Amino acid sequence: MYFLRCCVFLLLLVFLGPTPVAAAEPGAVRIGVLAFLDAQAMSGQWEPVLEHLATALPGYRPVLVQLDHTTLRAAVAAHSVDFVITNPGSYVALEMEFGISRIATLDTAQAPSPMRAVGSAVIVLAERKDLRSLADLAGKRVMAVGEDAFGGFQLAWREFAQLGIDPFTDF
User: Within a domain: residue 135?
Assistant: First the structure.
């Protein structure tokens, strides 16, 4: 995974070069990362990648910018990041709204693997005998992590849509 991340960043940096945002701080390349973990955990996860990029690309200084969904959107809108690393659901929303384009995506030889899969879980109380399929949830009260959560909502949303259920109006 470390090697793959490095390759992705290298491709991004080599083919695009610094943008006007980076020009504000010479050599800085601001990489916006959708962050789900606390700042310390995220820094530990990405530090080896940043160090490798700094070594591999003399003259550039990669800067990790940890953002949640709201601040990632704002950073893209303000052009305050040079590159974005995010999940597929967030990427599609940013592409539609701001016209960002993917340069590199993760596609591994191991896929499809349960270790690399993303999914949603719909959980109901065992005593609710009236809820046995997704279609049974129409008209019921349903809770989700948040509508911007790829695995926690958007994947299930697709399944509901295929059944003709709109989570925004039918729950």
Answer: yes
Q: Per the domain annotation, does 12 fall within a domain?
A: yes
Q: Tell me if residue 85 falls in helix, strand or coil.
A: strand
This prediction's pTM = 0.61
Q: Which is nearest to 64 in space by CA: 87, 81, 86?
A: 81
H or E stretch covering 143: none
Report the domain count for the chain.
Answer: 2
User: In which element (H, E) is residue 83 found?
Assistant: strand 83-85
| Domain range for 7 | 2-98
Domain-located, residue 132? yes
* Residue 17 counted as domain residue: yes
Q: How far is CA 13 from the centre of its chain?
A: 19
Q: Which of 52, 68, 98 lies at the terminal end of a domain, its last residue?
A: 98
pLDDT in tens, 38-84: 666 676 788 888 888 889 888 899 998 999 889 999 999 999 999 99
- CA separation (Å) from 85 to 4, 34, 69, 70, 102? 13, 6, 12, 14, 10
3-state secondary structure 7-66: HHHHHHHHHHCCCHHHHCCCCEEEEEEECCCCHHHHHHHHHHHHHHHHHHCCCCEEEEEE
